[in-house]
Specification:
The complex is a heterotrimer of chains A (about 325), B (about 500) and C (about 160). Chain A has helices at about 1-20, 40-55, 75-80, 95-105, 135-145, 160-170, 190-195, 205-215, 260-275, 280-285, 295-315, and strands at about 30-35, 60-65, 90-95, 115-130, 150-155, 180-185, 200-205, 220-225, 250-255, 290-295. Chain A has about 325 residues and is α/β, with parallel strands linked by helices. Chain A has 2 domains: about 30-120 and about 250-315, D-Maltodextrin-Binding Protein, domain 2, CATH 3.40.190; about 125-240, Periplasmic binding protein-like II (D-Maltodextrin-Binding Protein, domain 2, 3-Layer(aba) Sandwich). In chain A, strands 1, 2, 3, 4, 5, 6, 7, 8, 9 and 10 form a 10-stranded mixed beta sheet that branches. The radius of gyration of chain A is 21 Å and the shape is globular. Chain B is mostly helical and about 500 residues long. Chain B has one domain (about 1-500). Chain B is built from 19 helices and 2 strands. Chain B has helices spanning about 1-15, 20-35, 40-55, 60-85, 90-105, 105-140, 145-155, 165-180, 205-225, 245-265, 275-285, 300-325, 330-340, 345-350, 355-385, 390-410, 410-430, 435-460, 470-500; strands spanning about 185, 190-195. Chain C has 2 domains: about 15-75; about 85-165, no CATH class. In chain C, about 60% of the residues lie in helices and about 0% in strands. Chain C is built from 5 helices and no strands. Chain C is flat and about 55 Å long. Chain C starts with 16 loop residues before the first helix and ends in a 14-residue tail after the last helix. In chain C, about 40% of the residues are buried. Classes of the chains: A alpha/beta (about 325), B mainly alpha (about 500), C mainly alpha (about 160). Chains in contact: A-B, A-C, B-C. At the B-C interface, helix 8, helix 9, helix 16, helix 17 and helix 18 of B face helix 1, helix 2, helix 3, helix 4 and helix 5 of C.
Chain lengths: ~325, ~500, ~160
Amino acid sequence: MTFFNRFARAAVVAGAVLASTGAVFAQAELKIMAPAAPGGGWDQTARSMQQALVASGAAKSAQVTNVPGAGGTIGIAQFVNGAKGDPNALMVGGFVMMGAILTNKSPVGLDRVTPIARLTGEYEAIVVPANSPIKTAKDLVAALKADPAKVTWAGGSAGGVDHITAGLIAKAAGVDATKINYVPFSGGGEALAAILSGQVTAGISGYGEFEGQIKSGKLRLIGMTSPERLPDVDGPTLKEQGVDVVIANWRAIFAAPDLSADQRKALLATIEKMAKSKEWQDILKQKGWADTYLSGDAFAAYLKTENDVVADMLRSIGLVK
Amino acid sequence: MLETFAALGNGFALALQPDKLLFALVGVFLGTAVGVLPGIGPALTVALLLPVTFKLDPTGSLIMFAGIYYGGMYGGSTTAILINTPGESASMATALEGNKMAKAGRGGPALATSAIGSFVAGLIATIGLAFLAPALVEFAISFTSADYFALMVLAFVTVSATFGASRLRGLTSLFIGLALGLIGIDKLSGQQRLVFGVPDLTDGVEVTTLAVALFAVGEALFVASRHKAVVEKIEAVKGSVWMTKEDWKRSWKPWLRGTLLGFPIGALPAGGAEIPTFLSYSLEKRLCTKPEEFGNGAIEGVAGPEAANNASAAGTLVPLLTLGLPTSATAAIMLAGFQQYGLNPGPLLFAEKPDLVWGLIASLFVANAMLLVLNLPLVGLWVRLLAIPQPWLYGGIMVFATMGTIAAKPSVIELGMLLVFGLMGFMMRRFDYPIAPVVIGLILGPLAETQLRRALTISLGDPSVLVKSPISITLYVLAAIALLAPFFISALKNLGSNED
Amino acid sequence: MSDTETGLRTGRSSPDLGVIAVGIALITAAAVIYADAAQMSMAPLYAKIGPKVVPQIVAGGLALFGLLTVFGAFRGWFPAREEEDAAGAVWVAAGLGFTILSLILHFGFVAAMTALFACTSRAMGRRAFLVDAAIGAAIGLSVYLVFTKLLSLSLPQGPLESLL
């Protein structure tokens, strides 16, 4: 059984690592579902929450489960069926899930879960290569107006937040959003290479993807989709340049359907305590996530307007009928 | 050049500190242990360990990640050779010849050539990383979608090396793979293809699920269906456990050629580890003096792809360290690792944090050497695994194949695919269809389609973009040579025999 | 594409029914892919090649190879197959089937691995079902502990797992 010896040995080593860093495994009380594979954004959010919830004393314990697939629509379907009325069940979700529900025609939507709070978000950055004739968002708009086909955009998957942002910019510029020449790339690295080498006109993604290249001067940041300038981003917003596009790739936490008012209140308090804790703030800083905390009814209202914007744009792009 | 040596020297001084060595050792162990699990690759391991390592110092934890990365590459090959279960898609080519060797009692030499080849490739590629990175990255960035498409065409042309006895059945297998590659959301338009309303299918068929199903499950079914008629006798060791002089002679050139393919292609932002392993496999088959041994356990077919696999792992670090471009899942997670310490890989990293970068590069050498030292003595133990009674061996293989899938994606549909593709692998064995082209089709098909359509989108539908750059023209010429050379060679041979 | 190879079925006396079935399966798959491509509505905007083109090529290829396969069945292009013992394969498939079932019915990871190991072992001709089940349970349990406690991955839970 040498085969399993190897496991055992790895286990001992891994155990040593875990023990030395003081990680503890406690019995679960809160259950957080990450509707994605381990490693991705939602999973990181769930595992960071797990850390902060326990460290801040907001919860005795928290356990993360992963249900990956189909932009989170598999996760939400399972969550709605399995956690109905469970006051300890939470699910991470976000902008991408909202889009996936629409494009996948998922039978289970975000209206079926109990919104708790928006936690973090990343604003989109629009960049061009350093040697591009386009210097500002106004130049970009002018190029779009001249011929939308000639302005190629590199960004993430079709119908995702990058694609929608590109569509919104065209719309704000008075250009037909269906005519944008958007080129989806699967990985950040591939898109970055295409932008750096000038294969495409502009790149669009979360600021973090471009940060290093912007700071080293290889890419020029021509606009952020934040409502006002961000403290640690050196560049203008689209809005101040007259392109009225404000959008963020937000991540939020939801609770199970059919909760009583008291149960909902208790969860709101728990998450509030976590979101305000030093531990959570430290994690946000370390991961470079913006604090976009918005809870309760205000968040529910935000979800509705956001859903209309996304649905409208996906219809223009042609992904939703 | 001298500066580079001095910096590397400093790096070694850092990496050889006892605590850093310990981090490398832990990383190498974890990487190997997890790499053997199909479906759980180095990316997942690094991701899971990220929060744990946050409290460690940056250099230490990055060194550990480097160990995991290289270790994962080793682990995947071990299972590919021993139990025909590629731990990741890049070790599929290794399974083709490696498992045949293992069944013929030559598992020892197969594991050894894989370990030493990985070491040689890792060594050369890491040297390349240290000295050539800035130049290579310029080349890598200049690769356009059209050039990638040309590279895919070259890869497709060489698939025929895996076809086996019949061209009709080989092509059929390839097209089955291409058909499976269609399933899911079309990358460029966002539309669903062959999903039939099943949300799980929108993500497409996972390469490791298909490979494990076809190779491991299919084989278990096949062996079970014949155990009465044919008692398959696996001799763990026949001849030497170690590589013979002949084995060395046949291995060293494939190691070098594999490295030359793996490192630059790995450095391409969309290059990956699979394409160089396929290219290496078919190149070795072409160049081998005993091509008839291919398909029955030719050591070149293990040595080449294994070297290519590991060299591409080092290649991936070129764009990551020099530009901050994450070009593989693992690299993306490592980037997240850099960022959690407030470090931004890129041109500035070499200038701002030379200790860290050179420490990391030096620890890649250390991890590589450590893996060799750890793995070679284990070869003797590993091959004895094959002496486990057949019912338990296959029971273990099935458990092993399934648990990787369950851990990576605990869904009924995913396990259902494991069963359905397993049955398909069983039927394909019965009707003598080759297995490998299916997996190659699944990997290459979507890549080729995406790059082609992406190139045409950017060019607004002008097809001349496909043959515009010197890179793509060169690749097409190579593809033409690969396609036509066999005909010329046989024509020349005929000419020669006529003169006799 | 006329293949000459060793191990041919001699003569064209009896067509190979199994091979004909394979050919028909390929043609059916081609038809499904073609039909699926036909119902896609979105036209490509700037690239001339849209999401339909590659499926159509693949469907064409599969249909052609399917036809050639049926043809080959009559011409004896395919090597003869060995006798098989379906029971063995059925045991392996049953083990995997039980694993899927245990995911639906929440039997838990350990139970699934126990059955999978024991069934596969039985498929290869061993008769000590209980011993094998015990080995399978031990493997399943240790894997479960390593995965969930050390790697913090979630594995399917059943009655047994919730006790741990």
